[in-house]
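A further point concerns the way the authors explain their paired sequence and structure data. Showing the layout once, in full, would remove most of the difficulty. For illustration, here is how one protein appears when written out as sequence plus structure tokens:
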Amino acid sequence: MLDTRKENDLSIHIVQDVTGIDDLLTEADTVYAVINTARRGLIASNHSATHLLHSALREILGPHVAQKGSYVGPDALRFDFSHFSKVTDEQLAEVERIVNEKIREDIKLDEKRNVPIEEAKQLGATALFGEKYGDFVRVITFDPNYSVELCGGTHVPATGHIGLFKFTGEGSVSTGIRRIEAKTSAGAEALVNEQMAVVSELKDLLKAPKDIVKAVQSLLDERAALQKQVEALQNEKVQQLKNQLLDKVEMVNGHSRLVERVDVPSADALKQLAYDLKAKVDNLAVVLGADINGKPQLAVMLPDSLIQDKKLNAGQVVKELAKNIKGGGGGQPFFATAGGTDLSGLDAALAQGKELLG
């Protein structure tokens, strides 16, 4: 079926001919419409869950919550609603608990058709976003003290058929509108099974610890400690490199100049090295190049004398040098950096830098 439309109070089903013999179909022929009951059951579970979710959100977040859109399919549900801030993890957990509690209560569906609209309002029915209501409406109730809504969709005969409700996401759609995504029934079961499989795999990797959270935290702490040791060693190496580079500084046309290819672990280390060298040598112009994880990086530092007297600009200089490494960059007049993709052009960039700072 391609679509369902309502005209003159009649439901019209638009289907695609798959026989290739549509010219043989006449008005006298009988056509059978068959419902995919498994698929429809999943949709009904997700749809009824939005009713339970709506009421739970109003209970936890406040009566200002109102539906602003939704999607219900066989795979998942999406629910948009009015709210002024992010729903916290604690609030989500409480909403999920309430919805699952209502599912376990196996509340029977109370469906009333052709109810006068004013009577439905007196019952406390909540109108759903995007629905157009006539003089007579359909009222869907799961416990008159919990969920009473005007709705024309498909529903489970009792909440227990939903099986399980699990959140998969929460976020902002626009100002004042939040979106919740979730799964029910077989989808929720599959989600839980996937998560349990991940937990099982983690336990195997961690040699079956009694407390998996504690084991993971221990690994993170160990990693952080090792990272600090690595950073300390790298900093020591950079300081040694700085002392070596100081011996290579040369005087050119009234200012100091250093143009070198260096071995540093990161772009931040390259930047720090340039600043450290400037602090040690007066009136120093620097161009440093490095291979950082297979990618060329450049750093240019200029003294005030070159900026003011020769009108040089570190940002413009680094952009010109970056052409050699098929990259680009920028920065301030006194300091700029660039990255590229062609490591083979790094030496050419440094050679050009020496000329420009001459």
Summary: The chain has a mean pLDDT of 91. The radius of gyration is 34 Å. The first helix runs from residue 37 to 61. The chain has nine helices and 16 strands.
